[in-house]
Amino acid sequence: MTDEAFIHIVRVDIDPEHEAAFNAWYEQRHFPDLLACPGWLSAKRFVSVGDGPKYAAMYEVAGRWAFETPEFLKVKGFGPFESLVKNFMRIQLRPMSGPA
Predict the structure, then answer these.
(1) Which H or E run includes 92?
(2) Contact between 45 and 30 (Cβ < 8 Å)
(3) Which domains are seen in the chain, by residue range?
(4) How does pLDDT run across 90-100, given as a tens digit for each residue?
(5) DSSP letter assigned to residue 37
(6) Element (H, E) at 60
(7) Which residue in 56, 57, 53 sits closest to 13, CA to CA?
(8) CA 17 – CA 69 distance, rounded (Å)
(9) End-to-end CA distance of the chain, in Å?
(10) What 3-state class would DSSP assign to 30?
(11) Dihedral sign for Cα atoms in the order 13, 15, 20, 25
(12) Alpha carbon distance 15, 8 (integer Å)
């Protein structure tokens, strides 16, 4: 992948007893922290309607370099939920054509 903008998708499960706290942390802390990092352009969360991990987050990232900034290195991961997250999946996608 060249160093151009792409979509970064993360999917995870978390035990039901931690869901409310995890969701609050994700929306109130993790998203603002990530979006304050250089190169992290947008973020949105989803819940699965099919197979696979229950929760997904989709980010627009300016380039691979965004994963190497000091700001990102301080906030990456799942913070207080790191040991509780299960079934972690990641996919990175680049567009095949221009804007829709």
Answers:
(1) strand 85-93
(2) no
(3) 6-93 (3.30.70.100)
(4) 999 998 876 65
(5) S
(6) strand 55-61
(7) 53
(8) 34
(9) 21
(10) helix
(11) negative
(12) 23
